[in-house]
Design goal:
alpha/beta, 11 helices, about 35% helix, globular, binds adenosine-5'-triphosphate, binds magnesium ion
């Protein structure tokens, strides 16, 4: 019998191709890439602006229709578009974006933002106890429950966005530049939080052009350039013995944070 925990990665991306526009205006944003993410593993996608990182994340989340390839969750292909995925499939793969000001509804309280996925899951109104427990996982106090996003700091808002993703009890969280809008100290606290989540069994796809945070969080890295994967492997190996001059240049260009 196949043991899914050992034999099958949580997520596989196979031969993914994604484009924008049509005809002479078509641009190939992601050009035949394949990689996988194991359980409780953090894989970083790194690369310069425009290399296709976000498009990859959006295809996995079902938010952009790929022109070819498969997204396979625990051995079974996921429907390409989010609207064709089952509720359970939608819960399993969550995505958190760079800017919580755009992703959190300003007219909803934190209680309603974080409570909604809990209610979808449980079918009943989320209790203060459940909400408090979720907020504790992202190191926020239950005092924020009655507040609106505009009453929180950038780092707090990003924690709310992560708590909302966690409320769906996902197997995988795609983090697209989730620390990029934050100052370096707050970045470090978010990175620590994500690492705790990973250790608790959640797989992470960490998209960033900031290599400073990759080494402390990711087991493996996928290096993208112009829609292609030019290198992938163990993070330490990739950065210490980068085979490709592009990876070396990318790494040398970024200051480290602890
Ligand atoms: N909505 C869109 N319409 C047309 N082209 C797009 C769209 N979104 C992205 N692109 C193009 O697709 C390519 C890949 O973009 P993508 O956003 O995936 O890059 P990225 O690696 O995430 O960059 P960044 O680090 O700046 O976020 C780029 O050439 C970009 O201009
Ligand atoms: Mg991007």
């Amino acid at each position: 019998m196949v043991n899914p925990d050992i034999d099958v990665p949580e997520l596989e991306v196979r031969n993914l191709i994604a484009t924008y526009g049509r005809g002479t205006r078509e641009i190939v944003a992601v050009d035949d890439i394949s990689f996988s993410i194991g359980k409780a593993e953090c894989v970083a996608i790194v690369g310069e602006s425009g290399s296709g990182k976000s498009t990859t994340g959006r295809c996995i989340a079902g938010l952009h229709l790929p022109s070819n390839g498969e997204i396979i969750f625990r051995g079974a292909p996921l429907p390409k578009q989010a609207r064709d995925r089952t509720r359970e499939q939608l819960q399993q793969v969550q995505i958190v974006f760079q800017n919580p000001d755009l992703s959190l509804n300003p007219s909803h309280t934190i209680r309603s933002i974080v409570g909604r996925p809990l209610e979808m899951l449980g079918g009943t109104r989320a209790t203060t106890g459940e909400l408090t427990e979720l907020l504790e996982r992202v190191q926020l106090s239950a005092r924020v429950l009655g507040k609106y996003p505009s009453e929180l700091s950038g780092g707090e808002k990003q924690r709310v966005a992560i708590a909302r993703a966690l409320a769906a009890r996902p197997s995988i969280i795609i983090c697209d530049e989730v620390t990029s809008a934050l100052d370096v100290f707050v970045q470090a606290t978010i990175v620590n939080l994500l690492d705790d989540l990973r250790q608790s069994g959640v797989s992470l796809l960490f998209i960033t052009h900031n290599l400073g945070v990759v080494r402390s969080l990711a087991n493996r890295a996928v290096v993208m350039k112009d829609g292609h994967i030019i290198e992938q492997g163990n993070t330490a190996t990739i950065f210490e013995k980068a085979q490709h001059p592009y990876t070396q240049a990318l790494y040398n260009a970024v200051p480290e944070i602890d």
